[in-house]
Amino acid sequence: MKMIRLLICIVLLVLVLSGCKKEEVQPEEVFESYISYWQQGRYDQMYELISESAQHTMTPKEFAARYNSIYEGIKMNDLSVAPDLQDDQPKKGASDIHTFHYRLRMDTAAGPIAVDGAMQIARNQDNNHEWKVDWKPSLLFPSMKQGDKVNVRSLKAERGAIYDRFGRELAMNGSIEVLGIVPGKLGEDREATIAELSKRLAVPESFIEEKLAAPWVKADLFVPIVNVTGDRLHLDFSDMPGVAKRNKSARIYPYGEAAAHLTGYVRQVTAQDIERHPEQRLDSTDVIGKAGMEQIYDKRLRGRDGSQITIVQADGVVKETLAKVDPVDGEDIHVTIDAQLQRSMYQSFDGDAGTGAAIKPRTGEILALVSSPAYDPNLFIQGLSEEQWNSWIEDPQKPLLNRFTKLYSPGSVFKPITASIGLQLGISSVDKAKTIKGLRWAKDESWGNYYVKRVRDVSVESLTDAIVNSDNIYLAQEALEIGAEHFSREAEKFGFGKILPISYPFPKASLSNKGITNEILLADSSYGQGEVIMSSLHLALSYTPFINEGKLISPVFELTDGKEPQEDTGREPVLTPETAAAVNGMLLEVVDNPKGTGHGAYIKGYKIAGKTGTAELKRTKEEKGRENGWFVAYDAAGAELMMAMMIEDVQNRGGSAHVVRKTAPVLREYMKSLSRKD
């Protein structure tokens, strides 16, 4: 009986223990856990579910790094790993292996990737017979095998070109020669070759060694050392083993210094650029516009890079393209600039510091924007030396300063505006006479020691005489008759205080800092001194009413759809046609009349109008300060050209007559070129 009871207890104990045995995890549960961890990026838990044989080939850290490096490289996001609704198919002849299907989806730098994969769950035969993932490279991407890699390649968009009105390239894509070294071909005389190369290039040996020590350098790769420009073009390196030349794509500026401030330049993207413009997704291999049109139109010129993600075999053969986004090349920009006129105007300065603008006065098309002196923008691309940069920085002529976007006191070239205001309001007339004696004039004792001074003591019998002889006193007296309120109101119609409506940024011209608050400031303003400041472009535009029946023309900088702008007919005139014609007649007299200050620009057979001016830069009347000379000239018959030029420091060089001498040859050549076209 005891024996029976013992047997019953043993049976019950076995039954109890068997009921406590841990329930076996099924293969489908392993599969579901694995893809859940995968989607969450929990690579440590994934590693725990893979087979022991797979774990023997890599550590948990290496396993996680493999996924992370691939996903970071392709810029993966929105990962989705979902089970496919196919039945589990046990491998034929082996019930210990189950195959599960899944769908892998993700967004990447090259667009979405969508692939269907299969995962095998196998029973562990070596130990406790648990179900484990039979991990293989195909679980990264289905077509991958041992030795394969995932490759991400950027497909660079080509930067758009910048063209002038006739299709001439102001900024273009070209190539330059680069001198470099293939380290594996230097041979046993490596040190001697580097020492000799250092001597020929006039660079330190450490500079060359630093290039060769870059992390990416391999024995068979070409390592760029310097760009072959300037004096280096004539050097021979054929006797040096391992030293070679290659062509490299580069941005080219055919007009160099003549259009430097207009085109600007591009440079390699910096960390600061990437941080400053996160929305542009800049890459360290990109270039970005740093000045001028290259900067203004950078987004349009740069286009959008593409990307390609491929699986590559160990021998470099592409096995499969997982995703690809084609690059979108940058947009070409067409502007109204006439590159030949731009060059001609720049060369006319011949090193003088100054600025100039040229427009078509009927349409407002900008034909030239010049700043002198300038720099060569090609040097930024070809390799700018520290010595070159320092020479620009230390140059008292400031070649890096863009003068055509700066505001200057216009001096007497402002007088036609004052004359037009008096005529418009009926205060002046073309033949209005004034008796003016001497070189100095003050209204009365209330002006204290202040006075208006004129350059020549000549007989001024009319407003036309005052303009032809550039008489300060006559215009100051006219302004006082007009009054500050009316003068300011009418002058502001010429665009003062308003932004020029073009993509190229210009500061606002200003008539006064806080309003014309006294008669002395009003008198000085009448002949472009006081607080009046304008750019050369704004000055040229302010003369357009004189040739357009009183209409002030807006500037146009970019050509759209390949069409030239038409004459601006919709604007409200700032002057009556009669007033405009009267001022135009006076400006014709400035050039036609042998006594006129602009007679140096006279061209037989052409109707050239203009006005000279000298702006004094000094704190007191008695001080002998610097002077900026101005000349505005235009084609009064065909209205094909209007130029405004300013040269700094013309004192002791003939004042504004120096500017006329510089401008006249450009004007003559341009007018004659128009005749040849006809």
Secondary structure blueprint with pairings:
Layout: H1 2-20, H2 27-40, H3 43-48, H4 52-55, H5 60-73, E1 77-83, E2 89-90, E3 97-108, E4 111-123, E5 131-133, E6 149-155, E7 162-163, E8 169-181, H6 190-201, H7 205-212, E9 223-227, E10 243-252, H8 260-263, E11 266-268, H9 271-276, E12 287-289, H10 292-296, H11 298-302, E13 306-312, E14 318-325, E15 333-334, H12 339-349, E16 354-359, E17 366-372, H13 378-382, H14 386-394, H15 415-424, E18 440-441, E19 452-453, H16 463-468, H17 472-482, H18 484-492, H19 519-526, H20 536-542, H21 577-592, E20 608-617, E21 626-635, E22 642-647, H22 656-677
Parallel strand pairs: 7-15
Antiparallel strand pairs: 1-3, 2-3, 3-4, 4-5, 6-13, 7-8, 8-9, 8-10, 11-12, 13-14, 16-17, 16-22, 18-19, 20-21, 21-22
